[in-house]
């Protein structure tokens, strides 16, 4: 079956939504988050037409998408929790408004997603330079590469940052 056909998507949804929702509810321990992620799973199915060889393949495909969405969900929650803990340590006078908080959290999600797309050593070099302020030599020693490779890694990371900024500004044409 191809999910590009709307009746096939309806059948897929009718056949597996309850099963998927229960799977996600058990993983997330929250029915509301499970409902959101089940919905997001079917949205992804609509965006990526697929041919299935039967019910087992359908469920496997849905579970794979849902697993990735759960990982993203947990990562976002960890990031938000870290932000809230940092925010709680700040004096009340410097607390951002609710609108600013929402913008900051969304930007943190975007930066985290960008960092996750980077190769591990590039990500490590970038974090050591930008967050910890280490010089190239110390970064090179920390991740076991030459200073020249550190420069290359940081250039690669900065290119991704520029692309992220362009995306956030709506300048990147897809």
For the secondary structure, the number of strands is 0
Helix percent band: over 70%
Task: Report the sheet-strand fraction.
Answer: under 5%
Structural class: mainly alpha
Q: Note the total helix count.
A: 7
Report what the structure shows.
- Belongs to the sigma-70 factor family. ECF subfamily.
- This protein is mainly α.
- It has two domains: 6-84; 92-168, Winged helix-like DNA-binding domain superfamily/Winged helix DNA-binding domain (Arc Repressor Mutant, subunit A).
- It contains seven helices and no strands.
- It is globular.
In short:
The protein is mainly alpha-helical and 174 residues long. The chain has seven helices and no strands. It folds into two domains: 79 residues; 77 residues, Orthogonal Bundle (Arc Repressor Mutant, subunit A), CATH 1.10.10.
Descriptors:
174 residues, mainly alpha, Arc Repressor Mutant, subunit A, 2 domains, 7 helices, RNA_pol_sigma70_r4_t2, RNA_pol_sigma_r3/r4-like, transcription
How is the secondary structure organized here?
Elements: H1 6-28, H2 31-47, H3 55-88, H4 98-117, H5 120-130, H6 136-143, H7 147-168
